[in-house]
Amino acid sequence: TYDLASKCSVLLAKDFVHNTFTVILNEETSNSRSLYVEMNQTVMSIYPRLKISKTYNFSFTEDNCQVVDKSLEKNTTNARRETNKIEISNQKGVSLSCDFQYDLCTVTLAGWHHGISAGLFGTNDNEAGNEWTLPNGSFTDNVQEFTQSWQVNKCSLVPKKEKPCPITAKQIICKVFFEESHSLLR
């Protein structure tokens, strides 16, 4: 168990050999957290407290402006959504599930990911002595040094300026149907 006192995004786990998955805990504005999960060409952002998720598919994205809800079956990544739970997995033996009711997310790796991943979740090689491996390959026994070493941003308080995406008529209709608080489809 780690107490992440900082407001920085951290790398939880990544396959550093075959690059089959990446899981990042993002610190969002207003003290909210999200999980960034990347598998193959698919990225899923999961917001457990808000009980929502967004899926992006690099093969269909133009200028990173479209959120795509296409079938992920073609992409060897499967996503399944239930009322209080979401699961995402790939054919390489990586799965992540989040139970929104209990605010609990789990990452499961198959045996062939033995010892090829790293991050705050450790090295996944059943060796207790090297769980706190730093990105440079050295070891530490200091929890603050360990958690800070896996930060993926500079933790600046200045918000990044992003190029706004043009809003289309379809996006406006979707927003009215699915995002407005008075909508029955929300």
Automatic annotation (TrEMBL):
Residues 1-166 form the VWFD domain. It holds the Pfam family VWD. InterPro entries: VWF_type-D. It comes from the Eukaryota. This is APLP protein. It comes from Serilophus lunatus (silver-breasted broadbill). The lineage of its organism: Eukaryota, Metazoa, Chordata, Craniata, Vertebrata.
